[in-house]
Please model this.
Amino acid sequence: MRKINKQAGFTLIELIMVIVILGVLSAFALPRFADLGGQARVASINGAAGAIKSAANIAHAQWLADGGTASTVTLEGTSIAMSNGYPTKASIEVAAQITSSDYTITASAGAGTSVLFEVIGSTNCSIDYDNDGSAVPTYTTDASGC
Model:
């Protein structure tokens, strides 16, 4: 009678080859996915910019619908202070529903009219809302440091 040898697992050379192949694949794939944080911060600041612009326009539309003379409008049960028909620097944060857990929010000192929303943990990755009394507020997005 002949004895039949059954292999019970992988040989050492097979295991080493699999590890080498995985190492080579990861060396090529890792650089492609390494800098997704910058793209995420750019997307975050663009999303905040869209929320701020939309909130300002919705508040302005409500202000016009209410007769265009009120100093506040009510959006979803929340009172939004208005200046020249658009949310003030203090109320745009509430109108856009942007929280300080995601953005560093810095209002201009004193009687200034602007507020800066900056992605936490980065510099020069921000949007500036400025309701300076002109016809329409200005929005300045800076994604150079994202």
About this structure: The chain has a mean pLDDT of 86.
